[in-house]
């Protein structure tokens, strides 16, 4: 493994280093600007996805969804800081997998990537399920499988055309979602101002009171996945025009914008309905609240906007999953001939896009509860090891150690590790069992791949060295 540059050398360098790590043949194309990265991240999170779990988390936290989001936001800010550190050292595809394998150990990196892959591979499936559920509510005569096939087909087609078109589509789709969300907030505020449901503005949604810590942590653990968009953006480092500058900026813009949005929307919802048990359907609380604040017409607009979220989310989820598989295939962690190739004309890893599409089609056989229970495990594993990677970089590669570097490379990520481990331990038993089984499969595969650790792990893309700045 080559020597990493000092922290100051990375900060001072320009994005010529990013082009130096690109492979001479079959490399991903650098077409994404800062605005594309931000909208890809926001689309991946799907702004209207804030409505998905509102009823369930409100019930679990006794009407404190905004407080649970605040806990998650703090946790994500620590982790986002670590992501922004690592992408400056490794502006290449792969995200948490790349950071752990380069800074800690190749075998650790493989297992982190394996755990994260479960999330990336299953999210498009959940998206397809949600499409069938929402469209089925409007058109009950159309079979569920039709909506699943249409959603997966459209997302796959856009990804095969090229990442730039998919990114441009997401700018439009995110814009539509934001308009619907603003209308929702305005109508909710108007209802609260007129005393609807005896509601009044207060700090109660942010006040813990006698709320058990376990209940708050459990709700926060569910909501943490709302912020996965900034992690998805880090997988596009090899397709950003200026990754060492724009990826860190995009990460913080996405987290700040999403955090403000989630807190605002859930605050007005929780203020209007502090007790969601009064609603007819806790799981479907958001459409019911939309009808309450704006009538049937706004409910139709709300559901239509949500379908824009489904489409935008599906495009970016499939894009990120395909590129994570590409990074692992290119480095030999997965069969390179299948996973490590891109189309020379479009720069798209076609086989990976189609593999993710095939997995998404399992939405035809799995219900939402079963699918969602599998998602949480790998996300917290990835977040934890990104924070750990920063600490390892500090002790292994940085020679000039100031008080500021100790805080930025050790103290802050250590807090991130503690928070993420705490949230990981708050996951339900089903998530732990499924995630543990998936990880065990990864361990077995790694043992077979390395012949019982008697051979070296797969070759890695070397980190950037100082000479590339010259």
UniProtKB/TrEMBL annotation:
Protein name: Putrescine importer PuuP
Location relative to the cell: Membrane
Key word Transmembrane present: yes
Gene Ontology CC: one annotated term: membrane
TM stretches of this protein: 37-58, 64-83, 144-163, 170-193, 213-237, 249-269, 289-315, 346-365, 377-398, 405-424, 430-448
Location of the Amino acid permease/ SLC12A domain: 36-391
Keyword Phosphoprotein tagged: no
One Gene Ontology biological process: transmembrane transport
Organism, scientific name: Microbacterium azadirachtae
Topology relative to the membrane: Multi-pass membrane protein
Keywords, sorted A to Z: Membrane, Transmembrane, Transmembrane helix
Superkingdom in the source lineage: Bacteria
Lineage of origin: Bacteria, Bacillati, Actinomycetota, Actinomycetes, Micrococcales
């Amino acid at each position: 493994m080559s020597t990493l540059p000092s922290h100051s050398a990375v900060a001072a360098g320009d994005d010529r280093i990013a082009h130096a790590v690109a492979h001479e043949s079959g490399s991903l194309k650098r077409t994404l600007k800062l605005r594309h990265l931000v909208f890809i991240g926001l689309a991946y999170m799907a702004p209207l996805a804030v409505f998905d779990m509102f009823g369930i988390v409100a019930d679990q936290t006794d009407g404190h969804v905004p407080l649970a989001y605040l806990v998650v936001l703090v946790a994500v800010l620590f982790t986002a800081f670590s992501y922004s550190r690592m992408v400056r050292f490794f502006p290449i595809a792969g995200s948490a997998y790349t950071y752990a394998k380069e800074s800690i150990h190749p075998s650790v990196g493989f297992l982190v990537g394996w755990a994260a892959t479960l999330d990336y591979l299953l999210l498009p499936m959940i998206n397809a399920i949600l499409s069938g559920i929402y469209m089925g509510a409007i058109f009950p005569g159309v079979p569920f499988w039709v909506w699943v096939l249409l959603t997966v087909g459209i997302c796959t087609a856009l990804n095969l055309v090229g990442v730039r078109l998919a990114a441009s589509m997401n700018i439009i789709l995110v814009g539509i979602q934001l308009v619907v969300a603003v209308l929702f907030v305005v109508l909710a505020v108007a209802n609260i101002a007129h005393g609807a449901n005896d509601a009044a503005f207060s700090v109660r949604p942010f006040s813990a009171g006698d709320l058990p810590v376990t209940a708050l942590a459990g709700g926060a653990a569910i909501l943490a996945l709302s912020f996965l968009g900034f992690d998805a953006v880090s997988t596009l480092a090899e397709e950003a025009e200026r990754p060492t500058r724009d990826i860190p900026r995009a990460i913080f813009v996405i987290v700040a914008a999403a955090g403000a949005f989630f807190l605002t929307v859930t605050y007005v919802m929780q203020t209007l309905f502090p007790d969601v048990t009064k609603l007819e359907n806790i799981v479907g609380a958001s459409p019911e609240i939309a009808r309450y604040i704006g009538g049937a017409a706004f409910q139709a607009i709300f559901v239509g906007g949500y379908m824009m979220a489904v489409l935008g989310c599906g495009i970016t989820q499939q894009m990120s999953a395909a590129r994570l598989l590409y990074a692992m295939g290119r480095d030999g962690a997965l069969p390179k001939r299948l996973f490590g190739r891109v189309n020379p004309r479009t720069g798209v890893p076609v086989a990976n896009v189609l593999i993710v599409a095939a997995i998404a089609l399992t939405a035809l056989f799995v219900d939402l509860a079963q699918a969602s229970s599998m998602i949480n495990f790998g996300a917290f594993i990835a977040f934890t090891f990104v924070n750990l990677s920063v600490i390892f970089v500090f002790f292994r590669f940085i020679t000039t150690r100031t008080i500021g570097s100790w805080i930025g490379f050790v103290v802050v990520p250590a807090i991130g590790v503690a928070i993420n481990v705490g949230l990981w331990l708050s996951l339900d038993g089903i998530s732990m069992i499924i995630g543990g089984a998936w990880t065990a499969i990864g361990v077995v595969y790694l043992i077979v791949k390395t012949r019982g650790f008697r051979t070296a792990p797969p070759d890695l893309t070397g980190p950037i060295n100082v000479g590339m700045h010259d």
